[in-house]
């Protein structure tokens, strides 16, 4: 479950066994299930029993692998996967699979878009964070949906939004974004090489760390 994509039909069978164990079902008799399974899977603090859905746990373990692949590049297994499947790409921005790749890598690629929806960026030098597509403003949403222009260059980084003096390029911001968002960006510190590289964090948590 931690290193491969488990078919949903198998996860559903595991859930069926969990429900049967909880309510005392047997091959000969199915007892009444007094509480819905959705309620049983809620956290205990929300009135549930804290059961984990196998399908969700499988996805969480795969996302954890992506997280470690990005955050722990010094680990041997990360270096092996990166060198074999990275294809000279920055895995923060681009990830792909080929028909001949391993099932593990295909599973990682398959969950990538879901993973990216939870990732927020902390700006350092601004070179790795996509200005339009990544979440780096405090609203935790990408700027792409707020663009004033019909077409924008989705390849630029946050660093590209600075002028030659190292300040926010006001003309660029005003031409492409609503005034309220421009004012919000102008209130943010500009990126600098002295701040080190950009880093990723996990949205919706106080620590910005991914845990399972």
Please describe what this structure looks like.
There is one protein chain. This protein folds into two domains: 8-120, no CATH class; 125-196. 37% of the residues lie in helices and 4% in strands. It has helices at 8-23, 37-40, 54-71, 76-85, 103-118, 170-176, 179-186; strands spanning 119-122, 199-202. The model has no long low-confidence stretch (mean pLDDT 89).
Count of helical stretches: 7
Largest beta-sheet details: 2 strands, antiparallel
Tell me the β content: under 5%
Tally of individual domains: 2
What is the CA-atom radius of gyration, in angstroms? Answer: 22 Å
List unreliable stretches of 5+ residues. none
Share of helix, binned: 25-40%
The number of strands is: 2
- Biggest sheet strand line-up: 1-2
Q: Mean pLDDT, nearest integer?
A: 89
Structural class: mainly alpha
Distance, first to last CA: 13 Å
Shape: elongated
Order of helices and strands: HHHHHEHHE
């Amino acid at each position: 479950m931690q290193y491969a994509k488990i078919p949903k039909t198998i996860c559903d069978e595991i859930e069926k066994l969990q429900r049967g164990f909880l309510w005392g079902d047997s091959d000969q008799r199915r007892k009444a299930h007094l509480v819905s399974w959705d309620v049983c899977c809620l956290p205990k603090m929300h009135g549930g029993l804290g059961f984990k859905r196998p399908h969700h746990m499988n996805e969480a373990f795969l996302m954890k692998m992506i997280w470690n692949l990005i955050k722990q590049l010094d680990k041997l297994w990360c270096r092996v996967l990166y060198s074999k499947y990275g294809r000279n790409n920055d895995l923060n921005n681009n990830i792909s699979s080929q028909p001949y790749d391993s099932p593990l890598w295909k599973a990682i690629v398959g969950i990538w878009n879901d993973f990216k929806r939870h990732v927020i960026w902390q700006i350092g030098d601004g070179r790795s964070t996509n200005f339009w597509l990544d979440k780096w403003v405090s609203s935790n949403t990408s700027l792409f949906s707020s663009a004033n222009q019909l077409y924008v260059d989705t390849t630029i980084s946050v660093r590209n939004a600075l002028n030659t003096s190292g300040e926010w390029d006001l003309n660029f911001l005003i031409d492409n974004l609503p005034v309220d968002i421009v004012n919000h960006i102008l209130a943010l510190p500009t990126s600098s090489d002295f701040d080190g590289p950009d880093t990723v964090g996990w949205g919706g948590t106080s620590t910005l760390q991914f845990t399972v």
